[in-house]
Design a protein that fits this description.
alpha/beta, 3 domains, elongated
């Protein structure tokens, strides 16, 4: 039994180190608040953690025996490790492809833009134009303004595509502009908490309590929804400068 526990402990230690290195790197680089919450990646992380920290070490505990030939034991552990590496690789790739790249103000809402939200053709076209805000593999999350084009025909085309479930302007780097360029438009779209879409009456009541506790006015035009694949957040701004001062979650 001591041999089994030793094998379990060693396997668990190595698995923890590998998982901490990968998830820690992704979190510190791309998924820091509010990215992790908005991207809603808990299911992927749960699968990776379950396979790497539970299933793998437990299987090693079951098959480890001092009476088993060393060659057979090595083979069995190698199979377990291979399954772990496959799960870890799949999960890491999913997290990488969905990493947050932008927090975009567009029209009347703030939206999380993940790597797979950007169409490959639009990305290549933007790179050929050498645009300053085009994403690269090393790009970290940035706050940007993503306005619809001024040209009505192109604008209508994008709106129609977005309504039908196609590409939206937030996935088209050629239209990205610096965050500061959109502050006037953002200031005009700020609303009182009672008028912000995406939230129920109970949500708004809870937000009011948290805003008051943090010293923010609840009767001013200072709020906007921040959306992603998870539950929306509430972004609170300084109305004068249109800079973010707080981000609140419901749960």
């Amino acid at each position: 039994m001591q041999f089994r526990f030793k094998a379990l402990s060693l396997h668990l230690l190595v698995s923890c180190m590998a998982l901490t290195l990968i998830l820690g790197g992704l979190y510190l680089g791309w998924y820091r608040w509010p990215g992790w919450y908005l991207a809603d990646v808990t299911q992927v992380v749960a699968v990776i953690t379950g396979v790497d920290l539970v299933v793998g070490p437990l299987l090693t505990f079951v098959i480890a025996s001092p009476r088993k030939p060393r060659r057979a034991l090595t083979r069995d552990i190698a199979v377990i490790v291979a399954v772990q590496l496959f799960a870890l690789g799949y999960g890491t790739l999913s997290l990488w492809n969905g990493r947050p790249l932008y927090y975009a103000f567009s029209e009347d809402v703030l939206q999380l833009v993940q790597a797979y939200d950007i169409d490959a053709d639009d990305l290549q076209r933007a790179r050929r134009q050498h645009l300053a805000l085009v994403p690269h593999w090393y790009s970290l999350p940035r706050w940007i303004w993503a306005p619809l084009p001024a040209e009505s025909k192109e604008r209508d085309k994008i709106v129609a595509a977005a309504i039908s479930g196609g590409a939206d302007v937030i996935g088209m780097p050629e239209y990205y502009k610096p965050w500061a360029s959109g502050l006037a438009g953002l200031r005009a779209q700020l609303k009182r908490i009672d008028d912000v879409k995406y939230f129920s009456g109970n949500d708004k009541a809870l937000f009011k309590q948290r805003m008051q506790a943090a010293g923010f006015a609840t009767d001013q035009m200072n709020a906007m929804a921040l959306t992603g694949r998870g539950r929306p957040l509430l972004a609170v701004f300084d109305p004068a400068s249109a800079t973010t001062v707080a981000i609140f979650r419901v749960n």
